[in-house]
UniProtKB/TrEMBL annotation:
Residues 31-116 form the Cyclic nucleotide-binding domain. It holds the Pfam family cNMP_binding. It comes from Chryseobacterium piperi. It comes from the Bacteria. InterPro entries: cNMP-bd_dom (IPR000595), cNMP-bd_dom_sf (IPR018490), RmlC-like_jellyroll (IPR014710). The lineage of its organism: Bacteria, Pseudomonadati, Bacteroidota, Flavobacteriia, Flavobacteriales. This is Cyclic nucleotide-binding protein.
Length: 190
């Protein structure tokens, strides 16, 4: 849990007493590799903060293939923001890539948290701004870069993903087939 306190300290100043109160609004869960936290078609009731491990968000495309849209490793949040904010059915699945330990908060608890600790409004605003900026950059890269450039950029910017995450999931995230990713990697090695 100290992981979360260290993370919060990067954005806001809170006392130990405030931290204990803030954490009381969350539930800690341990999830197994490939365990689903939320399924496509379920109402998105929760946000997840990764204490340890890795989660991913994906959907099944029209060809019946899993398309990964997001990963979350330690100190990252993940949810279907659109469905969470509206408390509607999600079109995504959130699944553990590795055995993980996760903080979970639902919308009602989050609202109570924000009421009791207004400083958390600032925290969540800063988190959403960072996530939005990252999303904007990713969209630009998808339009501007070749597939090879996209892989090189991703592997340079996020080398820990290349080492931790199975190649077929990286391919899914980048919009490649696993075979095409293997071709790119072979070409870069030669």
């Amino acid at each position: 849990m100290e992981t979360f306190k260290t993370h919060l300290d990067k954005f806001i100043n809170i006392s130990e007493e405030e931290y204990r109160s803030i954490v009381s609004f969350f539930e800690v869960i341990d999830v197994k590799k490939k365990q689903n936290l939320m399924l496509d078609g379920e109402v998105c009731r929760s946000m997840y903060f990764v204490l340890k491990g890795c989660l991913r968000k994906f959907f099944i495309n029209v060809k019946g293939v899993e398309q990964t849209t997001e990963f979350a490793i330690e100190n990252w949040w993940i949810t279907d923001t659109f469905a969470y904010e509206r408390q509607i059915k999600s079109e995504f699945t959130i699944q553990a890539v590795e055995r993980s330990s996760v903080l979970v908060i639902d919308l009602q608890s989050q609202e109570l948290l924000l009421k009791k600790h207004p400083v958390m409004e600032r925290y969540f605003r800063m988190i959403y701004q960072k996530a939005y900026a990252a999303s904007e950059r990713r969209i630009r890269y998808l339009y501007e870069m070749t597939r090879e450039e996209l892989y090189i950029h991703f592997s340079t910017q996020y080398p820990w993903f290349i080492q931790r995450i199975p190649q077929y999931l990286i391919a899914s995230f980048l919009g490649f087939t696993p075979e095409y990713l293997s071709e790119i990697r072979a070409k870069l090695r030669s």
